[in-house]
Each structure stands twice: as C-alpha cells, then as structure tokens.
Design brief:
Chain lengths: ~350, ~180, ~500
Amino acid sequence: MNPIAHSPHAHAPVSIGKVMATVLLALTPATLFGFWLYGWPAVNLWAVALIAAIVGEALVVHLQGRKVRPVIMDGSGILTAWLLALSLPPYAPWWIAVLGSLFAVVIGKQVFGGLGQNVFNPAMAARVMLLISFPLEMTTWVAPSQAPGLLESLRITFFSQPIDGMASASLLGHVKTEFTRGIGLDQALTGYYAPMDMLWGSRAGSLGETAAVLLLIGGLFLIARRIITWHAPFAMLLGVAVPALLFNAIDANHYAGPMVHLLSGGLMLGAFFIVTDPVTSPNTALGQFIFGLSCGLLTWIIRTWGGYPEGVAFAVLLMNAATPIIDQYVKPRIYGRDRKGVALPANKG
Amino acid sequence: MLFAVVSLTLLGTVFGLLLGVAARYLKVEGNPLVAELEQLLPGSQCGQCGFPGCTGAAQALADGSAPLTLCPPGGRAVVQALAAKLGVEADLSGVEEKGPMIAEIKEEICIGCTRCFKVCPTDAIMGAAQQIHVVFREACTACGKCEEVCPTESAKLQPVPVTLQSWYWNKPQGAAS
Amino acid sequence: MKLFDLRGGVHPEGRKDLSAERHIRILPLPKKLYVPLQQHIGAPAIPVVNVGDKVLKGQLIATAQGAVSAPVHAPTSGTIVALGDHVAPHPSGLPVPTITLGSDGEDKWVPTETVEAPFALRAEEVAARVAAAGIVGLGGATFPSALKLNLSRNSGVQTLIMNGGECEPYLTCDDRIMRERAVGIVEGIRLIAHAVDAKEILVGIEDNKPEAIAAMQAAAGNSEVKVVAMPSMYPMGSEKQIIQVLTGMEIPAGGRPADIGVLVHNVATAYAVQQAIRYGKPLISRIVTLSGGAIRTACNVEALIGTPVQELIAFADGYAQPAARLVLGGPMMGQQFTNTNVPVVKGTSGVLALMASEIGQAEASPCIRCSTCVRACPVGLLPLEMAAHIRSADLTGAVGLGLKDCIACGSCSYVCPAHIPLVHYFNYAKGDLAAQERSKLKQEATKKLADARNERLARIERERAEAAAKRKAAREAKERAAKEAAEKAEAV
C-alpha cells in the first residue's frame, strides 16, 4: 500500500452510517404513530422485519466471505426492512414480514452485489413480490378502532388469529371495489373520506403510510439536513396531483381529486423515502425531477386505470428500470463546454 | 403432425444447404485482419512472443490461438490497441507485472564487440568496434536481443527508472466504490 | 459589482484563525539551502555554477532552458556545496536535481538595480525583467509569469483578475501579505496591467478576509484597481472558478484564460513582480503558512526558497501533538510528505501538520450513488460515474465523461459520505493515460526505426547481390573474351 495519501486532507464529517441514521430518525414519528394507531401487532411486525433483515443479510454476507460487521453497521439493511414494514398491513402474519425482509435484502440487494449495486428499490421489490404472491394477507386491513392487548397481538402476528371483527378496507381499495360494483365516487367516498383523518393518518392502511403530515415533516427534515433534495419528492407529488386535478375537473364522479390521491396509499412515504433512494434514482437534479414526475404519473395511472388499487410500488419499480437511461441522457453541462460537450468558442471580449 | 415434421425438416435441410453453399462460394480469401494487427505490433521482430516475428504473432492473434498479452515490449498500450481492434475485453492483470524494462550497457565491462549493435532491431545501440556502446532510451523496446548476444553480460535489461515526469498515482486499493 | 454564481463548491471548515492574526515573521537564515532546478511548470533550469563557487544573495545560479522555464537565484550568499539529487517536494518523494547552498551567514546581496519610474518601462521590458527574476505563479500552479504576460499581451487581454481568493482552509499567506504589503501588491498589480495593457483590473478576495479587503481597498485608492469581495466558498480561488464568478465567462475547454480576454495572477505574484521591477530583486523567498492542529504556534513566515521544512516547523515551536499527516500546501489540494528535509520551493504556500481528527478520513465504503459529489463538483462532472469506470479499468469511458475537464479540486472527495478517494482515482487515471500516450508515441517511433533498419538491411543485401552479379558478369565477360581470343589465336 502506498503510504502517501492523496488529497484532500480534510473531509466533511459525514458517513453512510450517519446518512442512514438520519433517514431512520426522519421515519420515527410516522412509525411511532403507526404503533400507537394499530397497537402491538404493528410493533411485532416491525421488529420481526428488522430482525429478519439483519440476520438474513449477515448470513448472506458471511457466505460471500465478506466482513459482516461493516455491512450491518451501515444501516442500509435496517432502513430497507423498516420501509418494508411501514408498507405492510399492520396485522399481517409474521412470515409475511420475514419473507419480505429476506427477499428485500437478499434478492433485492445482495444478489446484485450489495449496497449501491441494486437496480430496484429492495423494499418496493419485496412489497410487490408479497402483493402478487399473497394478495389476501397483503390486502387485509384493519380500522384503527380498539388496539388489541399484547397477548392478543402475539396471537395476531404469530398465529394468524382471524381478525374479522376489525377488518376494513383501505380507501383506494374501497374505491376500486365500489367502482366494480358500479357505484360512483361521491357515494363511495361517503363515510370513507374524512380529510382531517387522512391528514393525520387515523384510518385503515399500511403500518406507517397513513400519517401524511408526519411523513411530510420527516421528509422536510431530510431536505433541511441535505440528505435528499426537493426535486424527486416534489415532482412525484406533482405527477399525481396534476392529472388528478385535471380529470377530477372533467368527471368528479369517476376521478378522485388531488387531495384524495395525495393523502392516500403510500404516496407520502413513497415521495419522501422511496423515490429519494439514492441507489435506484438518477444522479442529477433534473434527472431526479423527471424520475419523480414519472413515478407520480405512473402511480396515478395505475391507481386510476390499473388492476391494483395502489400503484406507488409498481411505479417506482418501473422507473427504477428507467434510471440508467435517464442518467445516460441527463448529464450536467461541463464547464467550458456546451450541452453537447463541444468546447465553447474563444471570445476575446 | 407428420406434415409439420416433414415441412420443418425440409426447411432445415434447404437452409442448411444454402449456408453450406454460401460458405463455399462466398469465402473471404486470406484474412485482412492479420495485416491490421501487424500494424499495431512493435515491428521489431524480436521474437519474445515465441512466434516467428510480428507477422507470426499477428497470425496467431487473428486465429485466437495467442493471448492479447503476448507482446512484452509492447506493454499495455499494445494490449489495449489489440483489444480495441479485436473487439474483446483486455485482461491487463498479467501485463507489466515486472514493469517496463530498458536495456542498459555497463560501461565498465563493455568490450566494444559490436555484437549487440548488430542485432538491435531498432538501431537503439550506438557504437563502433573497440568503443563503448550506448543505448538510446527513446528507441529501446527492451526486446532483450542485446542481452542474449553480449559476451560479457554488460548489456542487461533494467527496469525503467521512475522520474518525476513518469511517476503517477497508483490505483486506489481497498473497499468498493 | 454584480457577481456570478459558482457551480457546486463546498464549505470546508476554514481554520484560518489559527494563523491569521500573527504578523509575518522572517525565518532565521538556515545553514544549508536546497534549491531544486525545477520549481515551475516546464523545462528544468540549467545550473551555471559549480561546486565550490561563491555566490551572492540574488545571484543567478541556474538559467532558464527553452521557452517554458524559469531561472533560479541564490537565496542567500555562500558557497555551492553540491549539485546533485535531493528529495523533491512531491508526493513521490523522488530525488530531483538540486543545488545545495551552504550559507556564509552574511546574507550579502548582489548589486541590484532600483528603478525609480517603473511605469516608464516598455511592456516588453517589464515582462523580460519578470522572466529574469524567475517569477512563477505563487498561487501553487507555478507557471512562469513572464510567459503568461507575453501570451496575454499578444492576444489582447482586456481584464486582469488578481486572485486573492485563498479558498484553501488553513492557508493565510495571501491574507497576511495583503494586510501587510498592500501598497507593494497594488503597484505590482498596476505593473502587470501595464505589461499586458489591461483595461479592467479586478482583485477578487473572499469575504472571510475583511482586513485584507480593507487594506487592499485603502492601497488601491482611486486607481483603476478594483477590489471585489467574493463569497467564501471552495474552490473560489481556482482560476476557472474566479473568472466565472467575477466575469460570468468560462474558459473554453482545453483553452486558456487569454481565449476569453482574461489574465489571472495571484496577489503574492504581484508583490514579487513589484520587488523585481522596482528593486531588481529576484524571487528568492516567499510567505509560507505554518498551521494545523499539531503545530504549536501556527503563523506565517517569510522563508528563503530552499529552506528545509523542518526548520520552519522548529521555528513554529515544533509539534504540540504528534502529527498524523504532514502536508505541503492546503488540505484540499496539498501534497502529503514524509521527509521533513524537503525544501520550501516557489510554489509552497503552506506547511501543515494535521491531526487525524482534522483529516477525518475513514475507510472507503461502497458508493450509494447519493450524488452529493455531483452537486459539489464546480465543473459539472459526475465523479461517481467516472470513478466507477476507472475502477473497472475503463479509462476511456471516464474520459468520455469529462475526466480531462476535472480540476482535481477535491470537492467530491471532501463531501463523499462513503469516503471514496474520488480525486485519487482521477489522478491515477490521468497519470495512466499520460503514460499510455507516452508509450504509444515511443512505440510508433521504435516501429519506424525497426522498419528503417529492415529496409536498410534489405537494401544492403540487394546491393551486395547486385555487386556480386556485376562481378560475376565482369568475370564471365573476361573469360569469354579470353576464350574468344584463344579461339581466334587457334584459328589463326
């Protein structure tokens, strides 16, 4: 090894671990709210997901003959499992979390070569895998009414105790179901859509996706800490809100308005914590804007005309696949060159 | 069923015959690649590759029977040029393990026999009978022929000395990027 | 005045307060001085003295060689002790040709010519005197200054930009020289402007040096020299960036500032120009910042060129703590060195002894493509992509992404949360490409030689064969003639 170190001989006080820790901190309010809203089953599910991810990743990295400690300590696997847990139905059985976490860190990340190498967002890949493979478990929602006790929660999570009494539907799922029955939006929304509840997140939905305001605060915190930039999140919200506004104006009975779209499903989580995943999103500000906008548009299209009620995960995965091509065409202009890379003309002013 | 089997067999036979005929009548005479590859090689015919001169090496490269890294005097630049011409990935791991070399003549033991001077493929050695010979560094390809013929072991290949002009940073080692 | 935006850039911790408030002190005369022959970009100087020669302070000891070069002068009076190799102030630590001068302690000057009316000198004369004084860019690039003056005058430069940015952390040598020698600097600036016939003179100083700005403004008075405060941001003091911020123009890729009618010089260079023109003093000393957390008394000293760095460190009362790394220059672009016997040269702006906590370097981890480096790059490159290409040995791919436009400022490495040595990758790639280019050129040359030799051997062979054939023909003709003669004789 060359004993002489290359410049710079100063370094900003940052590290991957610190970046991940800040993101986890930003997720904490929405997560705690989810725990409070749905009670112990949510805590169980979250813990199981995290443990599965850590153990699974450690095992795989060990099998690869690499050092386990730094990989676990960088916090990326924990963040992936955390995001996945937040997107699961809170009363889902334990094996859903285990399967999802393992899929995310092993197939979604380590198979591609580990941190920084994966093409698709691991949490979203796992969520889509679960949704397609286990549609029943993945769409059994509960209304946040009476939270079960600790003992009962263990039965729910680990012994799949039926939860018929509390079963409910998410807003987007409900609307889609009602449409198939020929019922219009104005009726479908009655009793289901209370804007303030939507905002605070007191409704049926995934573990940590409902608290729109808390997720927004977490996202703004990340922007303030310069972990993420505003481009992708803003563009994604725009990409959903604009078509929603347009079509709602054309036919309010068939197309939900922008507020319904913005506050429902996994949009807030997706906009601030998923499309901002650095690994699977483009490099440049403009690229990130295009990426976010496309994610938003696809989400709205899938929600409106697709087979599934929610489209964030699908939209993100589709755009992940398009990231390399965005990066190929959207590059910053280099100093002293024009956009095409040709040297600027001399100008002796 | 029978119809499908028969028709597919017939189609296969006809196309196979067509290919065979094409291969026979549209064959490219000779291989223009050999000449192009030879252009890229140093041309000093030193024979270090084990082939009879640069033409032989080019022939072997075109056949694919020799590795791209066959030419020690050419170094990495030649390997990369060959890789680009042949459109393959260059495996540079084996190249330049010993670093670039250059011939040097020890003045103390040179007897001025002119043998090295006569074999040098690039006229990189200057000298006359009974006089000490000198190597022009700029012209030496480190083919080693002078080393072979030198009766006093005066001519020897030495690693090229690193100077401030030729030094550069090594490739960063360690963790993934 | 309207300023333009710098793209990217970073805000490293300044740490200039360590040394900024102390007056420049003159370093005591060292016993031995090691003066390298190459302290500039271009060809090394050629010695004009021999071992044992007595020289006076300011006497020429090595003369410029070729168009791009600079002469070297004796930093003090004394005897030439050796002409040989000495460790270079360079990360390789390789030995370079150096003149070793033993000081006689008298510090006696050669007779110098004082010019009372320097502005009466013709522009060419100013440039010639700057060249003779061995002045090179003191900001660190060490390009021969006179050459820049001549190139600029010939291409009709409009704007002279004086670089007082000093954006590197720790360094305060330009700050101090502007505070203490502003009058001399301003005269030097006006001399440079005179030499290139510039219409507009802008002195760009970062706004973290209010005292220097005030001193320079006071010295500039109502002259055509305009002092401009610029926002503090790294790499504001880079040539390309200071032009962009002050004029909004960009140097065309592969071009020079003169291509857009601009000339950039460092403020310390202006002072050296003034000393050379007005007092006839060649460049034999410079201001050096001694700083870093491991140095006991951080300060600025005026040191003779050739002074071993260890004397500077001793002058700053040595180390307060063991230094984790010694650096020549600033922390962002400076070079680490290990041998404290390396000399101060014309381009040495600072000597830093840094503690591990100041360096803050950690083991590199995988790139998470966070693109912080993309936002930090002042040139608009994609450092993460370039490094990935270089890592997988695709140097051509890195060039396609703009490797050659990289100014190696280190902003990307500084901000990288994964601590990937990005600039190291780029400098490795640039060096490797240059080496490949050299070996390609050499190979083309040797191929020509080989072809020429083969042709010559063939020609000799052919000529020999022809000669043999001729001889054979002659012999046969002779034999035939003899035969015929014999036959004739027989017949008769």
